[in-house]
Amino acid sequence: MKKLLLLSGKGGTGKTTTAAAFAKFSQAKALADCDVDAPNLHLLFGKEPPTRSTPFAGSEKAYIQPELCIGCGRCLQYCRFHALSLVEGKASINEYFCEGCGVCAQVCPHVAPRLIEDVAGQQLLYQQERTFATASLKMGRGNSGKLVTAVKTSLFHYAPVCDLAIIDGSPGIGCPVLASMSGVDLVLLVAEPSLSGLSDVKRLVQTAQGLNTKLALCINKYDSSPQHTAALEAFCKEQQLPLVGRIPYDATASQAINQGLSLADFHCPAQLALQAAYVEVLKLLELA
């Protein structure tokens, strides 16, 4: 099984739109959404109830045992995250502020606070037409890289034998992106022609080089700024980075999104360009 990962320097470049189109072109039997902080591929490929739903324990958070708390306020004095307050004479914890450091449990004379496993998100697995793994992280929770690894592990464990797995990654270059990159055969960078777009591509290339990851680039809405498209093309040439496609701006993309469909379902300039880019990606993966 060849593993294709799609990344972008920021949200909104067209990464998920491209991943969804590639999944339709390939009739992918193995698909994952590893953008666990803001997943949305399930809007297309997770319309049926999930086959499996598993709680994800990211880290620990403090819990106040009310029967032991006397409301002395000592824990409030030592909590550097200001996660504690007194409510009706008892200590109360704001789960969004608590970092699970455990100081409150150490300083409390009655050991009222204790650390418990925090359910930080939910892993979902769909096994209808395809094996589709995804997850969602609760607001303000950490360990998204750990959850990304869990999503990939779930996909590769349950997916049937097939030629290609498509993984929609997170934007940026942080921990979830590094976890996404691990063990893939090709990373396709989806960039927009702008000054920040070029900067994002440079950062992603630098990150991927540290992991010895094979890269290719696709420019979305290339005709919106010929000057910046030329700069991206020049960078590709300089870095010997394969440029697999130039996707034109196409209002059909908005129609497809509003209807809960992929651009692969429409005959339009963007669909034709995406299909050509998909063929080039298959060549790089030695599947065509």
Secondary structural class: alpha/beta
- Strand residue content: 25-35%
Distance from N terminus to C terminus (CA atoms, Å) equals 14 Å
One letter per element, helices H and strands E, the order comes to EHEHEHEEHEEHEHEHEHEHH
Taking Cα atoms only, what radius of gyration do you get, to the nearest Å? 23 Å
Low-confidence stretches: none
Mean pLDDT: 92
**What order do the strands of the largest sheet run in, or round the barrel if closed?**
3-6-7-2-8-1-9-10-11
The count of DSSP E runs of length 2 or more, i.e. the number of strands, is 11
Biggest sheet layout: 9 strands, mixed
General form = elongated
Number of helices: 10
Share of helical residues: 25-40%
Which structural traits does this protein have?
elongated; 288 residues; alpha/beta; 10 helices; 11 strands
Briefly summarize what is shown.
The chain has 288 residues and is an alpha/beta fold. The chain has ten helices and eleven strands. The strands form two sheets. Strands 3-6-7-2-8-1-9-10-11 form a nine-stranded mixed sheet, with helices on both faces. Strands 4-5 form a two-stranded antiparallel ribbon.
Describe this structure in words.
With 288 residues, the chain is an alpha/beta fold. It contains 10 helices and 11 strands. A 9-stranded mixed beta sheet has the order 3-6-7-2-8-1-9-10-11, sandwiched between helices. Strands 4-5 form a two-stranded antiparallel sheet. The longest helix has 16 residues, at 195-210.
